[in-house]
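Z., the sequence and structure:
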Amino acid sequence: MSTLASPKLGLNVPAKHYSRLIKFIEEIARHEPQGAATSVDIFSNDDNQWYCQVCRGGQKTKPMGPSSKQQAERVQDARRIRIAAKGTAWLVFEETGQDENGPSSC
């Protein structure tokens, strides 16, 4: 589980995560890495500042934000729809240091 440092409290608080899996269009699915589930995740550590992040196997993008929960949900939906239609080639993923079978932070 991810944690974010809370500047107000001076301690690490578990982040709240809300993910939505991507259902690819058949044509796009042929070009995506096999066996790696892709999800768009929003998370917050204080219910005040929310971030949106795309996760695929052991990779994830840099979080977008901070924003309100409603704005993060809109970004989540927009990214999910674009990924379903165009794939993930336009995203820059970073390695998380976890393999596809291990626990994921997303």
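Strands lie at 3-6, 11-14, 16-21, 38-44, 50-56, 59-60, 64-67, 94-95. The mean pLDDT is 78.

Let me know what you think.
H.
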